[in-house]
Amino acid sequence: MKSMTILYTIGDSLYVNLTNRCPCNCTFCVRHEKDSVCEGENLWLEREPSAEEVIEEFKKRNLEDYKEVVFCGYGEPLVRIDELIEVSKYIRSVSDIKIRVNSNGLADLVHGKNTAEMLKGWVDSISISLNAPSKEEYNEITKSQFGLKAFDGLLNFAKEAKKNIEDVQFSVVDCITEDQIERSRKISEELQIPLRVRKMIE
């Protein structure tokens, strides 16, 4: 059996690839074009690694070599929120390195409960993909399995994240229009959550 890429690096950040499952099928997603990011290793998993397997991979690394750990692979990491928390607890037991999650913000809809409060104390930072400024535009871009209720679910998650996580950001990808970016910025200002405009990965 060939080895799976559970941990990978981009710059001085260590990334965790927990799952390939995602409730969205975004039109701009890099997964449509390639098997990796930044010419790295194949991020398609043969199966989902257990929390214990992920922790074993961490034991092979020196966390002092990195500025942060980022839960972001070829799927939505909060689909596996219990495993993410278990791994974060291990990281916390050996290091005070910053722990960040890149998320589509739909975890409450996936699990049917308030998930942001579960992350309190284990996650330092979360980047939430806002993607669009309205539920219709969001649905068109993300093709979420939750349809039109996805956008409000995302905003509710973001509000709860702000109560439970120190650093919360929104992001949009620059493949949307300038008007959509500006309207997204208005939402971020209303919720007092900073907005980052990301370059689309070519």
Structure description:
There is one protein chain. By secondary structure, the chain is α/β, with parallel strands linked by helices. It has a single domain (7-198), classed as TIM Barrel (Alpha-Beta Barrel), CATH 3.20.20. The protein has six helices and seven strands. 37% of the residues are buried. Helix 1 packs parallel to helix 2 (81-94). Strand 6 (167-173), helix 6 (178-191) and strand 7 form a beta-alpha-beta unit. The protein starts with 6 loop residues before the first strand and ends with a strand. It has helices at residues 51-58, 81-94, 107-111, 135-142, 149-164, 178-191; strands spanning 7-10, 13-16, 68-71, 98-103, 125-129, 167-173, 195-198. It has a seven-stranded mixed sheet with strand order 1-2-3-4-5-6-7. The longest helix is centred in the C-terminal third of the chain and has 16 residues, at 149-164. It comes from Inconstantimicrobium mannanitabidum. This is Radical SAM protein.
The quaternary organization reads as: single chain
Class inferred from helices and paired strands:
alpha/beta
Number of continuous helical runs: 6
CATH architecture: Alpha-Beta Barrel
Average of the residue pLDDT scores: 92
What is the element string, with H for helices and E for strands? EEHEHEHEHHEHE
- Low-confidence spans: pLDDT under 50, at least 5 residues? none
State the shape: globular
Q: Please give the number of β-strands.
A: 7
Main pleated sheet: 7 strands, mixed
Helix content: 25-40%
**Alpha-carbon distance between the termini?**
31 Å
Any idea of the CATH class? Alpha Beta
Annotated CATH homologous superfamily: Aldolase class I
* Alpha carbon gyration radius: 16 Å
Biggest sheet strand order reads 1-2-3-4-5-6-7
Count of individual domains: 1
Percentage of residues in strands: 15-25%
Protein name: Radical SAM protein
